[in-house]
Design goal:
Layout (H helix, E strand, L loop, with lengths): L6 E2 L2 H8 L10 H8 L9 H15 L11 H15 L4 H12 L1 E2 L2 H24 L3 H15 L1
Antiparallel strand pairs: 1-2
Helix pairs in contact: 5-6, 6-7
The chain binds zinc ion (ZN).
Length: 150
Amino acid sequence: MIAGRARFRYIKKLQRAAGYRLPDAAFHPANLEAITGSMNIDGLDPGTRDQVMRFFKDFLDCKCRDSPLCGCPERKFVVCLLELRELGLNHKEISRHLIDEYGIELFPADILSFLEDSVHLLEAVRSVADLAGEEELVKKTDRHIREISR
Ligand SMILES: [Zn+2]
């Protein structure tokens, strides 16, 4: 899954704020728990703190009982990538945006193949919806396919 490829560029700073070793995979459970729990976020420099706060607000802020290990963070990240693409950013611009906003590194090539896979998945959904006579869903998938692959 694409969220599994996202890495924190400034993991050393986050480790210092947490007080223990953390993996650099951004959505690793250890990182999600550190950010929602014990990490001393105020001890970070302002730039990194803003990125961590934004990461929390955009991906970790949910009301599930087993949050942040409920799957929402990874799902929200997928939606975020698709929304950025539909706003008109290409894979390189999305990669740059993730670094600026969240301090997250994700290779443009990984983003590109994720977007291609998403289009294939949407095309499969579209065919099933078409066979089932679900016209609204056909229209919806058509719109997303167009916006992602333009
Ligand atoms: Zn959740």
